[in-house]
Prior knowledge:
The protein is mostly beta strands and 124 residues long. The protein contains no helices and 11 strands. It has strands spanning 5-7, 10-12, 18-23, 33-39, 46-51, 57-59, 68-73, 78-83, 92-99, 113-114, 118-122. Strands 2, 4, 5, 6, 9, 10 and 11 form a 7-stranded mixed β-sheet that branches. It has a 4-stranded antiparallel β-sheet with strand order 1-3-8-7, with no helix packed on it.
Amino acid sequence: QLHIVESGGGLVQPGGSLRLSCAAPGFTLNFYAVGWFRQAPGKEREGVSCISDSGITTNLEDSVKGRFTISRDHAKTTVYLQMNSLKPEDTAVYYCAVRVYSSGTCERGAMDYWGAGILVTVSS
């Protein structure tokens, strides 16, 4: 079992910023596709952003383009999601997921390990 740990969530005002972190203690995330997903109450879980094993980043949700940036710190074997200009509609539980057993992009059904999720609330 691979344990994914997300951190950095919380309450932020509209227009504010948060940086989420994704790590797997005892395991490096450097060589796999890692994606951030989110799920708001009553909605489907959706992909937000993805970084491939080679470092290629992809926005999975058009609404976050230009506001969210996924990155990887190779030394810390940690993947981040920098979220700027946050909007109330960004409120959701955010999940980090890792694709280990197959190659490809951050397709929801193909991700092998998921974190427990962390709540991001954007509200005034």
